[in-house]
Design brief:
This protein has 6 helices and no strands. By secondary structure, it is mainly α. The protein has one domain. 30% of the residues are buried. The chain is elongated, with a radius of gyration of 17 Å.
Length: 152
Amino acid sequence: MPDNPGVIAHPPFLYLGVFLVALVAQWLAPRPMLATSAALALGLSLIVVALGIANWGRRTMQAAGTNINPARPATTIVTSGPFGFSRNPLYVSLTLLYIGLTLAVNTWWGIALLVPLLVALHFGIVLREERYLDRKFGASYREYRSRVRRYV
């Protein structure tokens, strides 16, 4: 059995692919959400928050000496930094980034595609990672899982 969770896609590429579909849909059939200036301001604010969480999460994982890429083996369970609040802060940040970009380009298509995106993330990535971490780290992962929420 490989020493990785066997996720269906590298998470940033999953989000990017769905966002590109939303952009094409917006180009073919525009569906704006808000006044352009309001959507842009709100979108840019979310992007800044998302990048801050992502940077904090990446630095925390690097400091712990584990791999960020889910195709590579996990070497430890990271429980500090944003991982003390969410077991998946990098996916939370990707979701906020996606919503921020969707707002910045002012398209309902991005929101419409959010549910299928989150279903794919949950079943194709997160649950696979959880099974992998449970197999690899056993009781220590289960204890962490019992006290920290999956997302927020």
